[in-house]
């Protein structure tokens, strides 16, 4: 079964569930994870230049024998490659490693002030040329989005940022939705820590699902695209078994209430890498 999708502001369909490959090792580990995910119905793969596994991701997609247009492929320009000319070069390098002639989504990985403005100009050109079907940002908070949107020709279509039950950021979620920017969650299951949260364990028992499945279902019902990372076939499969149930409004509110503003990753306001 393939997964449902959402429509981005430009009309492009993006699957609501994808496989994240952050920290998946280049070579057989990432190749096997991606191939298995595609086999069990995933149609979205999220990588980045800095993950250093684009070769393996590209190889897995080719070996899956799925038509390229059936796989929604995302990559990102890393901080040291930001700036107009650097971004164009980095994009070509990513395409080369992924062995494809276009990306479905290309993101500016972190906000880096003026460099990100220059990178965004490059992304707009890549979008105009048809070499990328949608463009967006990652880890941009409201001030970063406002700053970028003041001078851009094309608004970001996606903002991928840290989002999970302990970091809900309701104002950012609302801002993205009100500006037709699709929110996308990284680290949605908190590196597996959702399995230890009593509220999620209780809901898992109620719905006969795992705490991770409860959390991923919550993402989707919040209107957030989600990309859990795993290299274990069983987990990859289980993470996708979230389309046969629905959380009640009352239970959604219980999960919202777990918010503590607690980050797992870096604070986008203090990026020094």
TrEMBL record:
Active site: 51
Domain NADP-dependent oxidoreductase: 27-259
Alphabetical list of Pfam families matching this protein: Aldo_ket_red (PF00248)
PROSITE patterns given in the database record: ALDOKETO_REDUCTASE_1 (PS00798), ALDOKETO_REDUCTASE_2 (PS00062)
Binding site for substrate: 109
Site location (Lowers pKa of active site Tyr): 76
TM spans (from-to): none
InterPro entries listed in its UniProt record: AKR, AKR5G, Aldo/ket_reductase_CS, NAD(P)_OxRdtase_dom_sf, NADP_OxRdtase_dom
Gene Ontology MF terms in the entry: oxidoreductase activity, acting on the CH-OH group of donors, NAD or NADP as acceptor
Keywords: NADP, Oxidoreductase
The organism's place on the tree of life at top rank: Bacteria
Entry's family note: Belongs to the aldo/keto reductase family.
Protein name per its UniProtKB record: Aldo/keto reductase
Source species: Gaoshiqia sediminis
């Amino acid at each position: 079964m393939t997964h449902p999708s959402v429509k981005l502001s430009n009309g492009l369909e993006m699957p609501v569930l994808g496989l994240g490959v952050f920290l998946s090792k280049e070579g057989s580990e990432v190749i096997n994870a991606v191939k298995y995910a595609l086999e069990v119905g995933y149609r979205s793969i999220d990588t980045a230049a800095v993950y250093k596994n684009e070769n393996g991701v590209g190889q897995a997609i080719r070996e899956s024998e799925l038509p390229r247009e059936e796989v929604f492929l995302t990559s990102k320009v890393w901080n040291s490659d930001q700036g107009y000319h650097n971004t164009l070069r980095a994009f070509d390098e990513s395409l080369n490693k992924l062995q494809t002639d276009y990306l479905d989504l290309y993101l500016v990985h972190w906000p880096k002030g003026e460099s990100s403005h220059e990178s965004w100009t490059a992304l707009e050109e890549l979008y105009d040329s048809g070499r990328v079907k949608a463009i967006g940002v990652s880890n941009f908070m409201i001030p970063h989005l406002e700053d970028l949107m003041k001078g851009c020709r094309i608004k970001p279509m996606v903002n991928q940022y840290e989002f999970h039950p302990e970091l809900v950021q309701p104002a950012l979620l609302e801002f993205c939705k009100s500006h037709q920017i699709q929110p996308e969650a990284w680290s949605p299951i908190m590196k597996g820590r959702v399995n230890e949260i009593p509220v999620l364990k209780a809901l898992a028992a109620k719905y006969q699902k795992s705490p991770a499945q409860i959390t991923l279902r919550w993402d989707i019902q919040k209107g957030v695209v989600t990309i859990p990372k795993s290299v274990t076939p069983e987990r990859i499969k289980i993470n996708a078994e979230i389309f046969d149930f629905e959380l009640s409004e009352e239970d959604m509110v219980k999960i919202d209430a777990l918010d503590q503003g607690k980050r797992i990753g870096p604070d986008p306001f203090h990026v020094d890498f």
